[in-house]
Design brief:
single chain; mainly alpha; two-stranded parallel sheet
Length: about 160
């Protein structure tokens, strides 16, 4: 989980490979209307996110405890609760970095539908993991391999 540009795809694919489990990219679950809305610089609202979260929840439920890594911003507690209802064993890794670091990464990214202008709204929406939620925050500063290793170390065996 994390805001756009936090490294969800990069870390998620490497983590899934390291753990030997399937990987799914949350962006692939967005209906075309959501992609168009974000590409035009308009943040999604809860109604926009509903079918997207439901599709991710279905993927998690299909995994049935066999493991898998799926990227998902999961910015609000209620979004994580919705995913958790479908897959109670889900463990969230919050890829955590400063707005400055992530803005720098977004500025260098090419070919993604999410414009850097929406980063502020994502940080405003972000509700970090709370006590009682199964998950861990992982610092994203440093080389990718270090971040992936921190993520792997945080995942329960």
């Amino acid at each position: 989980m994390g805001v756009s540009g936090s490294g969800k795809t990069t870390v998620g694919t490497a983590l899934a490979e390291r753990l030997g489990v399937p990987y799914a990219e949350a962006d692939d679950f967005h209906p075309p209307e959501n992609v168009a809305k974000m590409a035009s610089g308009v943040p999604l609202d809860d109604e926009d996110r509903r079918p997207w979260l439901d599709a991710i929840a279905a993927w998690l439920a299909e995994r049935g405890g066999r493991g898998g890594v799926v990227t998902c911003s999961a910015l609000r507690r209620r979004y994580r609760d919705r995913l958790r209802r479908a897959a109670p064993e889900v463990f969230f890794l919050h890829l955590d970095g400063s707005p400055e670091l992530i803005a720098e990464r977004l500025a260098a990214r090419r070919g993604h539908f999410m414009p850097p202008e929406l980063l502020r709204s994502q940080f405003e929406t972000l509700e970090p993991l709370e006590p009682g939620e199964k998950g861990a925050a992982v610092a994203i500063d440093g080389p990718v391999e270090e971040v992936v290793e921190r993520a792997r170390a945080a995942v329960p065996r």
